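Lecture notes, unit on protein representations.

Consider one protein chain, 328 amino acids long.
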Amino acid sequence: MIDTTPTRNLALDLVRVTEAAALAAGRHMGRGDKIRADRAAVDAMRLMLNTVQMDGVIVIGEGEKDEAPMLFNGEKLGTGVAPQVDIAVDPIEGTRPLALGLSNSIATVALAPRGTMFNPGPFFYMSKIAVGPIAKDLIDIDAPIADNLIKVAKAKGEHVEDLTVVVLDRPRHDKLIAEIRKAGARIRLIPDGDVAGALMTAMPETNIDMLLGIGGTPEGVLAAAGLRCMGGTIMGKLYPRNQLEIEQAKKLGLDINKPLLMDDLISSEDVFFAATGITSGDLLEGVSYFRDGAKTDSLVMRGLTGTVRRIIATHRLSKLSEISSIQY
């Protein structure tokens, strides 16, 4: 007989984590200090993660690449009791936009059962392609761009000219952008934030159909967690920046030519994901402050049930300050 007793939805604990990080970091919007903003988000996220009922280990941390305050790989967090989980964090995805007062900065965290989350080791970058549920079984990262666009358009009952592709605005993507334009699709260039870009492919109201390009490996794993919950998919390939990283891949037994599928990035359906907007963007509204309070906008997801919640919360900062060491 199948046990139908509801199990604990840790995503509802995680939203308190991302809300705290966003509230702490949001005060630094436009102040030009990425490190100080990241420190505020890291400290808030660590404090709140340690209240979650879990035996957690960070597999995906962001500090090493950013040379910023760290939630470091291998760090143990939580209350120390079951379940045993892997943790992926990005206290601020988009530190530069936050520091400059630009859009699309978010706080994100994901959990998956121990041993089911991809550990990229020293590889900070990967090539990615992401789509929503309708086209999830059709894409191939090794196929020509035009072929992928034709398949996605056909699955959606549209023309390639109707599709919109999200691409990070980087010089390394000049050739990719030319290929997308030649195929006839539209392009949304974003300065940062390809976790949000990937998630939008699974949200019809955003009118984003695909994400393409080279971005962070940590962000790829976080996006995989969210897309696993939403029914979409992401494929990737490790993108070594130099010969040293190629040699490191060989030592670790990683094939840089082999595509990383969803099951390689997150191999369990029992995954949890949360994100809270710090600055307003296409995915989430940023933190807004008012007298003795603030409002946050979050996405909260659970893979086992496919439940996606949008949580708009108001916070009384004077009351929070009475019971928390976080500087709101």
